[in-house]
Design brief:
Blueprint (H helix, E strand, L loop, with lengths): L7 H11 L4 H7 L3 H18 L5 H15 L3 H8 L6 H16 L5 H14 L6
Helix pairs in contact: 3-4, 4-5, 6-7
Amino acid sequence: MTINMWGPVKTFYTLKEKHGIKDTQLDEVLINSKLMTSNMLKIINNILKTNTRLSTKGVQHKIYTKLLTLGYQKEDVLERIKDVKIDEAKIYQQEYQRWYNKLSLNYHGDELDKIIKEKLWRQGFNGN
């Protein structure tokens, strides 16, 4: 059983329900919140490092869903992601160029610009 990146909720549930460990034993084991915080920060940094297409809102949503799925508490996750910021200008330009190259064969002028802005809006950009 691998629990090294799981949050406290998922770890607690798995040890209690699937392996029959008592609550008093679990409280002693799960008190190490420094380990949980460092694991959470590793996951956040990994997502930030691999981001090439998402806006700040998109990255925050991705981190939020990933950490909740792993069993971290909602309050802890929200506290960590409120400070997440990325350089959107560079990613916006890259995405604009990618969509332009892809759609310019079929669309032209204002229609092309409108469709590209819609695609970027879906990715979380506000239409810079």
